[in-house]
Amino acid sequence: MPGQALIARFAHRLTHINDYRERIFYALARVFAFVLGLLACAWGVATFPTLWWQISIERTADAIVDHATFKSSSLEPLLPAVDEIEESSYCRPEAVHSAAIIRLQLAENALADAQRGVIDARLSTLDNTIRRSLACSPSDPFLWMILAWVDQTREGFRPGQLAYLRLSYRLGPYEGWIADRRNRQALSIFERLPLDLADAVVREFAGMVKGEFDEQAIAILMGPGWPIHDQLLAGLEGIDLRRREDLAKELYSAGYDVAVPGIARRAPRPW
């Protein structure tokens, strides 16, 4: 019938149109995916060098924290990437933290080598780096500790440094990797510390022993902590007996005759 034929032709044309639209849609989708892939490749090419340098900086900073030492000549190639991290409008706390560690190592190298021509410049740069980093990551206890150290190194002791140390202890009281440096730093000005900070230093030393950082604890005890070694050792009374025994054995083996709370002192050696 004529009506049925008309309907059949209309249905056929509609099917053809739909097939055409579907082919156009898939073609556009493939073009879009291709363009998106090109853009991703371009972004990768543009950002890969920066990301690679940032990864290198973070790995180097981690190694420094683990007590590895780097000469300034091996760190200086990282400085353009460090500058980029510091000047970026995008805040990445891990990156700025690592940049600060690199700057700290450079400043300490200059001090160790007595490079008078660069000490002031590196300390000034480190100070600026720390303050910019704190604007990005104000809850970083390491940065507050280093700010106190920089100010003390440049200006000698000033009461304002106590506020920086107090913030470091408040924000990271049990940071084992910070404790070694912070305890030494605080003990160097122990007689100037108010009671709350002095107590924090003694508790931190006990925490190092409790955390089995015996090598660092002994070096502190026989170094900057010696003037108050009785006080530091008395602060160990509340920690596990086994830990105190282990520390006493290591002290005795190293030739130190001191009284660890709750541990009987050994008889003097006959030689």
Describe the overall structure.
This protein is mainly α and 271 residues long. The chain has two domains: 67-172, Alpha Horseshoe (Serine Threonine Protein Phosphatase 5, Tetratricopeptide repeat); 181-271. Helix content is 74%, strand content 0%.
Total helices: the number is 12
Q: How confident overall, as mean pLDDT?
A: 83
Q: What is the count of distinct domains?
A: 2
What is the CATH topology of the largest domain? Serine Threonine Protein Phosphatase 5, Tetratricopeptide repeat
Identify the CATH class of the largest domain: Mainly Alpha
Radius of gyration: 31 Å
In summary, what is this structure?
This protein has helices at 2-65, 72-75, 79-87, 93-112, 116-136, 141-155, 160-171, 176-187, 195-210, 214-221, 229-234, 241-253. It is mainly alpha-helical.
Characteristics of this structure?
74% helix, 271 residues, globular, mainly alpha, 2 domains
